[in-house]
Amino acid sequence: MAKILKRERLVPNIHLIEIEDPQIAKKCKPGQFVIVMADNFGERIPLTIADWDTEKGSVTSVFLVVGTSTHKLSLLEAGDEVPVFVGPLGRPSEIEKFGKILCAGGCFGIAAIYPIARAMKEAGNTVITVLDVKANFLLYWEDKLRSVSDEFYVSSRDGYYDCKDFIPKTLESVVKKEGKIDRVISIGCTYLMYTCSEATKPLGVKTLVSLNPIMVDGTGMCGACRVTVDGRTKFACVDGPDFDGHLVDWEELFIRRKSYFEDEIESLCYWEKKNFP
Ligand code: FES
User: Of 101, 103, 122, 230, which sees the most CB atoms within 10 A?
Assistant: First the structure.
């Protein structure tokens, strides 16, 4: 069991959860993830680590409410306990002085990219952050990300910020404006990471994505998180989650992510009817 120290709604469908676990907090590195279960009957949910506090002994993640398990997680409060909390899992992101790094994030990926941007800045890189939101009220952690960025852009469909374009187009114009970019790191929904990778391919900029396939054990035993990268089978939980976005078989990933789509809808309808008749 692990105790929840904080659960907070950041924007309408995105929540933050801070869980107490000094052992995990001590070992966290940017790019890694944890697996959490909201109760004994839910799924094992992989969540990228968004921050950690070694003194407090806590780990923070940010998640999008999508199906039954994330709905359950969003209803927990400080003081509640989760039955399963394991990590840190996955390989840490590669952090070193590359030169100019562009961090592109959207949705839950805004938080997930924060520790990477911070570590890249600490390693002496110039950090350009580009965030994508559908509307201004969906942006969160702006101050945190600004504090670790040399340049900061927000693309918002309502035109509230720098531009209205979806992130790939923004990425293209930022790359053209900023000159040589040594590496792009993109985190968010699969479609966002796919489109970022497509946008940077013709520009020849190496692009890392943090893949989010369906996971079960998170330790390389079950094969649920299988992805194909450069024609080879990889397990995102132990070989990743970071991979070269230009080498990922995106079509296969999109199909595999939809495997339980209908079951998820059925489960959520059943759960909502039972709990909110
Ligand atoms: Fe089971 Fe990766 S989640 S092998």
Answer: 103
